[in-house]
Design brief:
This protein is mostly beta strands. It contains one helix and 34 strands. Strands 8, 9, 10, 11 and 12 form a five-stranded antiparallel beta sheet that branches.
């Protein structure tokens, strides 16, 4: 069998950007990958295989690129000393063109603090940002926390705001509403998920529809948020709605909630699991989830795949996944099922043990990945943190290849918010 080359040892020293050999000139769209290193934004372009620093401020903590690859939105973090031994963190939202031109502040740190009603001791940040498809407009939420307490691990997202990277911003939902959100594929609507209800709102802030679906509010130890995905036609949202906390795991129902107000449909009931582990197949026929044992204390028994009955319809699945907690089984954009380590499952797989093709896979510790298409994937490893572009071919004898894009120092903690990508025209 043929396996992906191991990410280590790597040429060059850890923490050094690793330019790849220049690619041959092409008229085809190429990949642009922006990432945070040493608090700066660097850009790797597939067309040249070279890395350049496009923003040198030393305080960037997160990046996201518009789907046309023209604008990069990013967060800058600063510290404020309050008293001896006590301080706070605060973030501001900025944007810059992909070529490094026109850096501009979109939401100041003080403006975000006012939105969140932050006290002097409160730190503030933006936990979620999502571009509206086909635009340079960005939706985001905020949260506040105490650095000297639990920090961001127990922070709760609040509010929903819309900002135009080329103009101004508008508040859609006032701060104080605890929620997570997902933009519809057509860019017209937003689903709002709180710990006990689901609602919809038009992207311009009109036609709010609250409590379209309600469910039990669980605490473990903080509030449990559901997860979900839109149907491709933007007519419904498929959600993992929790209904019972059994101690260390959760029972929940998979429901399809139409935006037109018609009754939600139950597609599956999943016991002894965790909503955040749930992933869906693009055809809307299957869902995967972690399965815990019924012992006390419970343990992970494995990951399972179940049929959705009735089928949910074609779904817009997230192509970027994090694997630091319970996520594992997932599907590529074209429908092939994989484990988190990129082992390919059988077409009729029911669990993570049903591996049918492991000729090309990753053997290391995987932190996050982002599918580009059915054969190419960005993946972030740990110890050290290294970002790779991987290419797979399951149809013949062609080897899988990996291109190391960047390596971070061993002591650096790198999250999925540290890198972003888009396919761009030459």
């Amino acid at each position: 069998s043929v396996g992906m080359p191991s990410p280590s040892p790597m040429p060059g020293s850890v923490g050094t950007a690793l330019p790849s050999p220049a690619a041959a000139p092409s008229n085809e769209p190429g990949l642009a990958v922006a990432f945070v290193k040493d608090g700066n934004i660097q850009l790797w372009e597939e067309a040249t295989g070279q890395i350049q620093t496009i923003l040198d401020t030393g305080d960037v903590i997160a990046v996201t690129m518009s789907d046309d690859g023209q604008v990069i939105a990013f967060l800058r973090r600063s510290g404020v000393q309050i008293s001896d031994g006590e301080g706070r963190e605060q973030s501001a939202l900025w944007a810059v063109d992909r070529n490094g031109g026109n850096p501009r502040e979109l939401v100041s740190a003080e403006s975000l603090r006012q939105r969140l009603n932050a006290t002097e001791r409160d730190s503030t940040n933006i936990p979620q940002m999502q571009w509206i498809p086909g635009t340079h407009r960005l939706l985001f939420s905020g949260w506040k926390y105490i650095v000297q307490a639990e920090g961001e691990s127990h922070a709760i997202p609040e509010g929903l705001s819309l900002v135009d990277a080329d103009a101004g911003n508008t508040t859609l939902v006032p701060a104080g509403n605890n929620l997570r959100f997902v933009v519809s594929p057509d860019g017209r609507q937003v689903v709002l998920m709180s710990p006990n209800s689901l609602g919809f709102i038009n992207v311009d802030g009109s036609n709010p529809r609250s409590d379209v679906l309600t469910y039990s509010s669980l605490q473990l130890p903080g509030p449990v948020f559901p997860t979900g995905v839109w149907t491709r036609d933007s007519q419904a949202f498929v959600i993992t709605a929790p209904f019972e906390n059994t101690g260390t795991d959760i029972n929940f129902t998979v429901k399809r909630v139409p935006v037109d107000g018609s009754s939600p449909e139950t597609l599956a009931e999943i016991l002894r699991s965790e909503p955040g582990s749930t992933t869906f197949s693009p055809d809307g026929k299957h869902a995967a989830f972690v399965q815990f044992t019924d012992t006390q204390p419970s343990e992970i028994a494995g990951w399972r795949i179940t049929l959705l009955t009735p089928e949910a319809g074609s779904l817009t699945i997230p192509t970027k996944l994090e694997f630091e907690r319970f996520a594992n089984l997932h599907w590529s954009p074209t429908g092939n099922p994989f484990t988190k380590n990129l082992r390919k499952l059988c077409p009729d797989a029911t669990s993570d043990s049903d591996v049918c093709d492991d000729r090309i896979h990753f053997d290391g510790t995987l932190a996050a990945l982002q599918w580009i298409d059915s054969n190419r994937v960005l993946f972030l490893t740990r110890n050290p943190s290294v970002l790779f572009l991987g290419e797979m071919d399951f149809s013949g004898n062609m080897d899988g290849t990996t291109i190391p894009i960047v390596a971070w120092p061993l002591e650096d903690w790198v999250s999925s918010q540290s890198f972003t990508m888009a396919e761009v025209s030459p």
